[in-house]
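Q: Please design a sequence for this.
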C-alpha cells in the first residue's frame, strides 16, 4: 500500500524534470528500517558537494566533497569531523571477493499507474547475486541525472574504503548481497536512472517525496562547525583518536 501511495504522490512531481543539469538540487526522501519509524532524509546536490542530513536545522550530517574526493561525517555530540578519503589501488594490486559473485538484473512487470517523464515510465528492477534477491529499484531513466552522477560517485568512494576492512570480516559473516552492494559492485541501483523507490534486506526502504531543481543553496551548509576535532577514519581504526568523557 505504501509503495502504491508513493508512486501516486510522485506522479505530479515528475512532469517538469529535464535531462540536463540545471543548477543545484534539493531531494527529499522518506526512509524506513526494521523496528524504526519512518524518517526524513534530505540531500542537497551541487557540482562540488553532496550534503545528506535529516532536514532543516540538522547539525548531524554527511558531506561529500566531490572535488577533493572525501566524505566527511559531522557529529555534533562528539563535536568531531571524521574524513573518509578515496582509496586507490596500486597498478599491480588486485582486490577480489573470497568467492565467485554472479550478478543478474531482472526487469519486473511494468507497474500499473507508473509515472512518466519524457514519455518514459518508471521501471522496476531486481538486483540479484548468486541467485539471492539483494535489492529492488523502481527508477526513471533521465530523471535528475546530476543527482544520479553525484550519488554514484559517493557510493563508489565509500566502496574503496570498505576494501580496507573487508579482510577483517569473519568468513561466516560474509554475505554475497552485502559485499556486492558495499564493496564489489557499488551504486548499481543508479544504473537505471534515478530511483524513486528502493528496498532491500532488513525491511529497509527509501521513497522519493519531493525535489526542487535550481535550489537556492545556503553556502554555509557546506562549512564545518568551528572548534570541532578533525581526524580520519584511518586514525580512528588505528586507535589514534581520543574523545573527551
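A: Design:
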Amino acid at each position: 500500500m505504501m509503495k502504491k501511495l508513493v508512486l501516486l504522490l510522485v506522479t505530479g512531481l515528475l512532469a517538469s524534470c529535464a535531462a540536463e543539469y540545471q543548477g543545484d538540487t534539493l531531494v527529499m526522501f522518506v526512509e524506513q528500517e526494521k523496528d524504526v519509524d519512518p524518517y526524513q532524509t534530505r540531500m542537497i546536490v551541487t557540482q562540488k558537494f553532496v550534503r545528506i542530513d535529516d532536514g532543516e536545522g540538522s547539525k548531524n550530517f554527511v558531506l561529500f566533497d566531490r572535488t577533493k574526493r572525501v566524505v566527511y561525517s559531522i557529529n555534533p555530540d562528539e563535536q568531531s569531523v571524521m574524513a573518509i578519503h578515496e582509496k586507490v589501488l596500486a597498478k599491480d594490486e588486485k582486490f577480489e571477493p573470497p568467492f565467485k559473485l554472479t550478478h543478474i538484473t531482472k526487469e519486473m512487470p511494468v507497474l500499473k499507474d507508473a509515472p512518466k517523464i519524457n514519455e518514459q515510465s518508471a521501471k522496476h528492477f531486481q538486483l540479484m547475486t548468486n541467485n539471492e534477491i539483494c535489492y529492488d529499484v523502481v527508477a526513471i531513466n533521465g530523471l535528475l541525472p546530476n543527482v544520479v552522477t553525484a550519488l554514484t560517485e559517493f557510493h563508489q568512494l565509500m566502496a574503496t574504503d570498505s576494501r580496507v576492512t573487508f579482510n577483517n570480516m569473519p568468513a561466516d559473516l560474509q554475505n554475497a548481497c552485502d559485499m556486492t552492494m558495499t564493496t564489489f559492485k557499488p551504486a548499481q541501483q543508479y544504473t537505471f536512472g534515478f530511483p524513486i523507490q528502493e528496498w532491500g534486506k532488513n525491511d529497509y526502504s527509501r521513497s522519493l517525496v519531493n525535489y526542487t531543481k535550481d535550489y537556492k543553496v545556503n553556502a554555509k551548509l557546506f562549512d564545518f562547525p568551528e572548534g570541532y576535532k578533525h581526524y580520519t577514519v584511518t586514525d580512528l581504526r588505528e586507535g589514534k583518536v581520543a574523545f573527551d568523557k
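Q: Thanks. Anything notable?
A: Residues 2-237 form a domain with the outer membrane lipoprotein receptor (LolB), chain A fold (CATH 2.50.20.10). The two ends are 46 Å apart (CA to CA).
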